[in-house]
Amino acid sequence: MADLEKIVDQLSGLTLLEAAELTKMLEEKWGVSAAAPVAMGMMVAAGAGGEEEAAEEKTEFDVVLKEIGPKKINVIKEVRALTALGLKEAKAVVDEKSTVLEAVNKETAEEAKAKLEAAGAEVEIK
Q1: pTM over 0.70
Q2: What DSSP assignment string belongs to 24-41?
Q3: Number of structural domains found in the chain
């Protein structure tokens, strides 16, 4: 059996982004969703208006590249500025059209979207 205390110590050292990525990886591997029980509990507790309240309470957003556009170099530069990634890592994010920022507030997500779109990319906030 694994040393549970060691695992707790390792998990405690994760950054917020690392913890979010770990959650996604475990959800995919185990075929579950960590958010489902919480959302269901909110809807049951809130009654008929629960869905509207749950939608309004969303505080974390992901900024995702949908299309790069004709100015790939400008998009890579902007990804580097937003994330502090190295050139190679930022290029990989752009090439894969993946998530640029995870679990950021709405204001940060909107600012990032505006900057990336100004660089020529098509961006989606989830």
Answers
A1: no
A2: HHHHHHHT--SSHHHHHH
A3: 2
